[in-house]
Structures are given as structure tokens and as C-alpha cells.
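WARN  no MSA supplied for this record, continuing single-sequence
INFO  ligand: calcium ion
INFO  echoing inputs
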Amino acid sequence: MIDSLSDGFMSIDRWWRFTYLNNTAERYLRQERKNLLGRNIWQCYPDLVDSGYYRIYQQTAASGLPGRHTDYYAPLGTWFEARSFHHDDGITVLFRDVTREHEHAAQLEFEASHDYLTGLANRRKCMEALTLAVAEAASPSSTDGASLALLFIDLDHLKEVNDAFGHAVGDELLRGFAKRLLAIPEPAFFAARVGGDEFVLLLRNTTESAAEAFAHSVLNVLAVPFEACGRSVSLSASIGIALLRKEPESAEDLLSHADTAMYAAKSSGGFPVRTYDGALDRGMRDRVALRIDLREAFAANQFELHFQPQIALADASLIGAEALLRWRHPERGLLTPAAFLDLLLESPYEGALAEWLLNAVCQHIVAWRRMGVTVPRISLNLSARQLLGVGLTDRILHIARAYDISPAMLDIEVTEDSLVSDIEKATSVLAALKQAGVSTSLDDFGAGYSSLSYLVRLPIDTLKIDKAFVRALVESEKASAVIRGIVGLARSLGMKTIAEGVEHQSQLEELKDAGCDSVQGYLISRPLNSEAFAEFMLWL
Ligand code: C2E
Ligand code: CA
Ligand code: CA
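INFO  complex generated
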């Protein structure tokens, strides 16, 4: 019966001599029982002495209590689980080969903690390692001066690569990048892939400048083109660095600081490496606070419009004004769109803004009319989504009618990039506006795509020549040539031109020379509040 057991079975007497071994034990030990019977186990298997097995066998022999132990037994290359039982004349051991189970468990552990694609640690393992490293660095025994640095790497445009060449190429790039990361001399002691195109590296005993130098080596290995599925692709990245400071910081803090720095690098346009500092955090906190304040802004009536006059170059007459948004923030004072517009346009209030803007413009026109001044036309800026939102033309007509204002007094400014996202829809909205009598302007012309193929099809009344060209005037012959080109182009398409950002008389002269129709800029007037603009009109 014992011979037919699937477990190994051996009996050992009080002098540690084998007294019995079953068939399975022979197989496991790769030894015939006749070579072992009667011999001392510690002499046959000297590697066992002082092992975990040794301990439980001794314990069971001494105390009579059963024991259990699992370990890797190197001479046989096998994981054994052994259980020991006491009997009157020594001990009995039941043991089995658990190598398969063990390797499976180890594999599972590896898979749970590693990224299948690159073999680097995954996010979970990263947090574990980071927590450990932070605790270690914070312990009193750690040398001060040198510290722990976390590099947060975000690859640029991996999505585009995937879209253009397929995921197989993207995967190959990620694998290739991971390999190169580990091959950088004096590599990071820990590397993980924590998101689709996000990697974390940990550097120990480093300094700010050493960490930054390391970040640049990472950029260098990325810049060398990768061969993936027969294609040659090179990549770039943005890298945020956070160093563990003296103050107690958690692993999460460190990671979020590096993340913040990475975002700052990404949005800096041209500075791919950024080290976190408190100022950066204040900046980000500022934005978060502003986002929260936005919720109150409409209800608390904190938005207002300023108006910047537009003048015809032929006779210096007023042709209209552009309405520019301002936020009278209760603590921060008057804010221009640079401080908040992107937050507002990605908030749920984007639609509400368009509605508010239309009403506010009409209210001002009515108020000026009561004062006896007539403004020829007011231009409003609309974002892509505001322009393409449902029923814009109907809303405009409805509101204009409610205030008894001719639609011809309104002009809608849109930018090129807001048109190209859905050029068909944009074209039909612009056509509907034109049909309704509302005029339209193409803002920042020359700064965006400027594709002639769609310009020809767009029902636009006025091209607004971007500030950048006006600024370059006088110094650069090319800018002057470009402006002449734009004016000629507009004329042949039946459009008017207005130049923005005119600050100097010399720019105005050149624009006049180039045949530009009108101008807007600090030279004529800065944007004015409603009362000041009314006064401006009265004086004109
Ligand atoms: P924009 O449409 O290009 O507006 C012209 C900007 O140039 C205004 O900045 C104006 O104050 C500034 N400016 C005018 N003359 C000069 C000059 O001579 N020199 C210089 N350097 N700058 C001049 P502002 O008011 O800060 O507006 C910034 C941008 O915010 C606008 O650029 C527009 O795209 C956006 N924006 C403003 N109001 C609204 C709005 O009500 N709705 C939407 N969707 N966007 C708005
Ligand atoms: Ca504008
Ligand atoms: Ca503009």
C-alpha cells in the first residue's frame, strides 16, 4: 500500500538511518533504496544539514510534533514539500515534488508585478518599490546630500504611431525603448512601465544635475531611430523629475510631483525635461483653484466685455469693435483670457459662455444706443464647439430680434483650426450665418493651417491678419511681402482684410501701402470697458 502512494515516503530511525523508502521516494531521489537503507540520512545528503528540512526533522524527533516545510533542493533541482511525523522508533517523512506548482506561482507573481510587453515592472510593483525606496531614503542611516530621484517619462505621439502604422509597430517601439533604457550606462536601479506610454525610473544617491543628465541620456537613446516591423521610427518624450526633499514625502507625492513636472515640460514647447519645484506646484494649484472659481463666475456675474475699436485705413472711420472677454475675479482682479479661457472652454460652461456673450453684446449695443451713440458692428469670438453647437444661427437671430438689433451689426470671429476639425459642417454654419445677414471673420489668419483649398470654399467676409505678421513688419521684408500676398488673395476672393496688433505708426503706414482695409491695435486704442468705449465713439 505504501509503495503505491503517489507521495514519497521514508522512515528514519532514532539514529537517522533510513529504514524504509517507497517507490515514489526512489523516483524522487533518483536512487535505489538498497543504496540508502541502513545509512545515515545526513551522510547520504550532506546538503540537507542545517536546511529547513533538517530543522523540522530534528524538531519532530525531539518534540513529537509534526512539521512541514517547502524548499528548493538544489542538488536535485526540485522543489519538495515535506511533512514529518513522529513514531516510536524515529520519524516518518511524506514528501512530494511541488516544482510545477511553485514555478506556476512564481510566474503568476511575475505577471502580476510586471508589464507583459516590456518585462519591466508594472504600476503596482512600481508603487511597492517606490514606497520602499522612500522609506529607505528617509531612514536616519541614509547618507544626506545625495537623494532619491524619480523620472516620469511620457512618450510623445505614440498614439499617432499606433494609428498610422498599427499597434504591432507601437508595441515593438515600447519593447525597444525598454531595452535601451536598461542599457544606459549606470542604469536606473528600478524601471517600470506605468501606463500605455508612461515609464518611471528611480535613481538612488543622485543629485538634481545628475538626474537631469540621466533624463537627457534617455532622450538621446530615444532619438536614435527604432526599426519596427520594417519601418524606421524615432520618438521623443517629455520627462518630469522629482527629487525626494528633506521634508517627509510619500511615494504618492513624489510620483505626482514628477507627473506635474512632466506636464509642465510637455506644455512648455521645446523644453522636454523639467524638474519639479514648489513654484510649479503653486502654478498648478492656481489653475485648479481657478477651475473651481469658474463655477461661481457666471452666477456671480463676474464676466465682462471690453471692446477694442477697429478703424478703416481709407478715412480713419470706426468700422466696429471686437468684444474681448474679461473675468473680474474677486481676489485676483481683472483677468484676461490667457489666464482662464482654456479652462472655461473645456468646462461644461462653454455653451453657456456663447449664450452669455451674445446677450451681453446686444445689451451693450442697446445701452450705447440709449446714450445716442451708434456702433457700426461688434465682433464676437467663438470657439469651434460654440460655432458648431446646435442651432447657433437660430439663437443669434432670436436674441438679436429680442433686443431689436439688426443681425448685420454682429460679426462672428472664428479661427482656422476650429474650422478644419469638421470643414463640411463649418462651411454650412458659416453659410447659414451669411444668409441670416451676420458677417464672419477668419481670426489669426496665417497663424494656423492656411490651406488655400478650403479658404476658397469658405463663406467668410473678412480675413484678420495675425499679429505675428504685423509685429514682423518694418524689420522684415518677407513679412511685408506676406501681408501683400494675403491682401491680394483676400481681394481676389472678395474678402476684406483687417490687421491686428498694430502698435506703431510705421506698421500702419506699411499696411496702408499694402492695401489692407482696416486695423485694430494699441496704436488706435487698447480694449476699453463699455463706458470708455462709448466715450471713444463720442469723441471720434
Ligand atoms: P484674439 O481674438 O486674437 O484677440 C486679440 C487679442 O490681442 C486681445 O487679447 C487683444 O487685447 C490683443 N491686442 C489687441 N491689440 C493689440 C496690440 O496692439 N498688441 C498686442 N500685443 N496685443 C493686442 P485678449 O483680450 O487677451 O484676448 C486673447 C484671446 O482670447 C483672443 O485673441 C481670443 O482668441 C480669445 N477671446 C477673447 N474673448 C473671447 C470670447 O469672448 N470668446 C472666445 N471664445 N474667445 C475669446
Ligand atoms: Ca478675435
Ligand atoms: Ca486674433
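Residues 350-370 form the longest helix (21 residues).
INFO  checksum written, moving to next record
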